[in-house]
Amino acid sequence: MKTRKIPCLLGLWAFLFFSFSLTAQDDVAADSTGLPGDNFSLEGALALFKQAQSPEDFEKLLNAAENNVNNLDLNEDGDVDYIRVIDNMDEDVHALVLQVPVSERESQDIAVIEIEKQGDEEAILQIIGDEDIFGEQVIAEPFEEEGVKNGRGGPAVQTGPVRIVVNVWLWPSVRFVYRPGYRVWVSPWRWRHYPTWWRPWRPLAWHRYHPRVAPYRAHCHVIGTHRVARAHAVYAPRRTGSTVVHTRTTTVVAARGRHGNTVAGKKTTTTTTVHGRNGREVERTNTTTKAARQGRNGNVSGGKKTTTTTKVTKRRGRG
User: Which of 76, 96, 235, 277 has the smallest count of CB within 10 Å of its CB?
Assistant: First the structure.
């Protein structure tokens, strides 16, 4: 009897394992928006910029396969695109554009890192993902957590961490662009003219790429406010886009629902009869409407509205 149970248990275990694996892959795949931004990590780009020694070094890190930040193929030739970095400088602000030459005539901005000096040894930055890549303008910034303590009338009690804006002055690449005599970096590379050290690779499928960029989100979050206003004003007139990429993105956005607009709704109505006071029967009708909304990364979320209608249907016994 024991020898018969072992194969059965192994078979059941294998079935459950593969069923779970397929379900997990389906969940990850369902999280894809179908937009180019699925294949580029804004958080990863900031992590590389923090590590880089200069804008030129940053460009090399962006285009290294092992860093798992760039997985873009905007011209759909089967190879990952080369991203060049172009610094737009105006006095004490910098807007470093991450740009892909899509063809001989067109280029597309992927994102821009905007830096603003706020004191002798203080600077802040944000990275803004281009709307033609992400479907909408996405702003992300690094953060640090600081514990908040409240010792009013007694011992100090930690109420929880608070995210604070990071002073990036000590980042080597930031110090580099603010040093005296800095020569503004403009990548010399263009369509079909790339550095000899660069070797393009095949883009990864979404379910393989997505888990690799997840660790980059630990110290970076998406917000809805432009903190680096002066640098953004420097960049805005210089923004570059590709007609091909724009058309492709707007088509996908229109199909999925732009900026979280309702994609699909679900309405459920249930009727319950309960016994109320004095023997009365009360009929309660609950109508629940869920509005599914498409957000960044394809996550579906939305509002939930429940309407309850109460109706006395009849009286039982003496009232």
Answer: 277
